[in-house]
Amino acid sequence: MKNMNSTLKFFIETYNNASNDTYLFQVDKLLRSQMQLTTGVEYMVTVKISRTKCERNGTRNHSCPIQNKKKLKKSFICDFLVYTVPWMNYYQLWNNSCLEA
């Protein structure tokens, strides 16, 4: 799907901004995705997100490896719906629910 990467990036940035976890999360695996054209594009997506080794207040570098220490490991399966108007660079998270994986 053409705009999937930017949609996933928008979702995880929104998730990390709202999270009060010490560490940042990142999309670990894309499990399912559907696209529906409306006045824009709606993406219904299921992803597995996992805690990284990068601290939220640390320097944001591009490679944040997934946590592998047993005590710090944490993953969620998230279903979300993003409404986007890609040609206007507009994204809105309409629905989001995450369950611990």
Question: What features would you describe in this structure?
Answer:
Pfam families: Cystatin. One of its GO terms (molecular function) is cysteine-type endopeptidase inhibitor activity. Keywords: Disulfide bond. This is Cystatin-like 1-like. Strand 3 and strand 4 form a beta hairpin. With 101 residues, the protein is mostly beta strands. It has a 4-stranded antiparallel sheet. Helices cover 15% and strands 51% of the residues. The protein has one domain: Roll (Nuclear Transport Factor 2, Chain: A). The longest helix has 15 residues, at 4-18. The chain is globular, with a radius of gyration of 14 Å.
Please give the structural blueprint.
Blueprint: H1 4-18, E1 23-37, E2 41-55, E3 75-85, E4 90-100
Antiparallel strand pairs: 1-2, 2-3, 3-4
Instruction: Output the radius of gyration.
Output: 14 Å
Total domains, how many? Answer: 1
Structural class: mainly beta
Would you report the number of β strands?
A: 4
What pattern of helices and strands is seen along the backbone?
A: HEEEE
Distance between the termini: 25 Å
What does the main sheet amount to?
4 strands, antiparallel
User: In the CATH classification, which architecture applies?
Assistant: Roll
Give the uncertain stretches in residue-range form.
Answer: none
- Give the CATH topology: Nuclear Transport Factor 2, Chain: A
Protein name: Cystatin-like 1-like
GO molecular function, one term: cysteine-type endopeptidase inhibitor activity
Family: Belongs to the cystatin family.
Keywords: Disulfide bond
